[in-house]
Amino acid sequence: MTDFQETLYDGYGQRFRIDRVLHEVRTEHQHLIIFENARMGRVMALDGVVQTTEADEFIYHEMLTHVPILAHGLARRVLIVGGGDGGILREVCKHRSVEQITMVEIDETVVQLCKALLPNHSSGAFEDPRLSLVIEDGMRFVADCEEKFDVIISDSTDPVGPGEVLFSENFYQACRRCLNEGGILVAQNGTPFLQLGEVQTTASRMHGLFADWHFYQAAVPTYIGGAMTFAWGACDPASRKVPLDTLTQRLAGSGIVTRYYNAHVHCGAFGLPQYVLQAIGKPSND
Ligand code: SAM
To answer: How many CA atoms lie within 13 A of 216 on its CB side?
Structure first.
């Protein structure tokens, strides 16, 4: 039996026993492996970094999807950047109010292999008639995009390799340009205990671009280092202050049954630890 040793951090990382390799390939953009682990189910890693596991993907995909869409309240057009495993797409498709979904993924091999080997992630969402799947670099797409969206979800790899450009000022500026009035951008932004610099960099790039920028958190076990932050950029500051009762009603009205997300978790997720607030130069009552 061999092990998968994550290589994201020098001298520190998580190890999975590989019970069975389902597929391993160097795609046009990155190294990909999908393997089985008795405890975490099927696991996909890209360039040595765990992207998603069957066991805990629901936490990440529910929080990166339902927080912006339910905060917005009237999202009709959604853009997903990255997200090749289909987990975000699955959650977005659960919102009947969403009329059009564009997904821009750089690596078609990720989509094909995840459809085949991680079918529970997309659960048929790639067949949703609302979907327009674009195989392209997300940076190039938003730079040239003439369309506008109500919610943009950046579900990228870490800011190394093909994902690096999705953490650039150009990317955030282009996303801001592609948002309708009242629009919201959210983006996976790493675990601040180990990647505080990533959070600080994003904060400095979003500051001045959005009427309201902040972060929210959720602890996803296989994104090691404690809670993961999600970057939040909103055209309307009220989007981050939607009352608990309103969020409760919106979730109930959506008919979506969740395993992690609820209105209390939504509101609490925006409460950040002091060391993160200090790193991004925000007061504790922001
Ligand atoms: N949930 C994971 C995380 O938080 O690390 C991310 C999962 S998803 C598999 C990440 C996706 O981003 C991959 O499918 C990768 O191919 C895609 N990606 C990386 N760089 C990209 C780019 N520049 N444009 C579009 N997609 C990109």
So the answer is: 27
Cα 138 to middle of ligand 1, angstroms:
9
Q: pTM for the full model?
A: 0.98
- The answer to whether 135 and 141 have CB atoms below 8 angstroms apart is no
Query: pLDDT digit string (tens) for 185-225?
Result: 999 999 999 999 999 999 999 999 999 999 999 999 999 99
Decide: 223 and 50 in contact? Cβ < 8 Å: yes
Instruction: Report whether 281 contacts 203 (CB < 8 A).
Output: yes
If you measure from the C-alpha of residue 80 to the centroid of ligand 1, how many angstroms do you get, rounded to a whole number?
10
| pLDDT mean over 240-246 | 98
pLDDT at 128 over 90: yes
> Strands 41-46 and 49-53: what pairing?
antiparallel
Task: Give per-residue pLDDT as tens, 41-65.
Answer: 999 999 999 999 999 999 999 999 9
Q: How many residues does the chain have?
A: 286
Helix (H) / strand (E) containing 143: helix 138-144
CB 111 within 8 Å of CB 133: yes
The residue to which tokens 């190890």 are assigned: 15
Cβ-contact 271, 282 below 8 angstroms: no
Q: Which residues are catalytic?
A: 155
Q: pLDDT tens digits for 155-164?
A: 999 988 999 9
Atom of ligand 1 nearest to the CA of 165: 23
| The two structure tokens encoding residue 283 | 């007061």
Q: What is the 8-class DSSP label of residue 168?
A: S
Q: Where are the alpha helices (DSSP H) in 157-262?
A: 169-177, 192-206, 244-254
Partners of 154 in the β-ladder: 81, 187
